[in-house]
Design a protein that fits this description.
The protein has four helices and five strands. By secondary structure, the chain is of the alpha+beta class.
């Protein structure tokens, strides 16, 4: 079941969903618009594989294979061919065990049909 705006708001008020900071204006008909943070994590060049077992064993393993790149306001990051980056959000999202969520990119480029894989 997809939660509607009112159900999302009820779940936020009851604590089943925590969004910090929360802005009721970011609620849509069946979603919440999160904000991209002013930093991204860029994976080191030449990295051909990532061992998910390492990630599961050590929460800091990601720090060893990425670097933080700041993106000043009114600026951009030029993504190189084959480069992998992780975007960060301003908001921290916590869901109750009985709620699943999905995070999707939302940009004018995706709406124009440009999608990087």
């Amino acid at each position: 079941m997809i939660l509607t705006r009112d159900k999302i708001l009820d779940a936020v008020r009851s604590g089943e969903i925590r969004i910090e900071p929360f802005d009721e204006g970011a609620l849509d008909a069946a979603s919440y618009d999160m904000t991209l943070y002013n930093q991204i994590r860029v994976f080191i060049e030449g990295l051909n594989e990532i061992d998910l077992n390492d990630m599961a064993r050590d929460a800091n393993a990601l720090l060893n294979i990425t670097r933080i790149v700041p993106i000043p306001a009114e600026s951009y990051y030029l993504l190189k061919p084959g480069e992998l980056v992780l975007g960060m959000t301003v908001e921290k999202l916590t869901l109750a065990p009985n709620i699943a969520g999905s995070l999707e990119g939302r940009s004018r480029f995706a709406r124009m049909g440009l999608w990087c894989t």
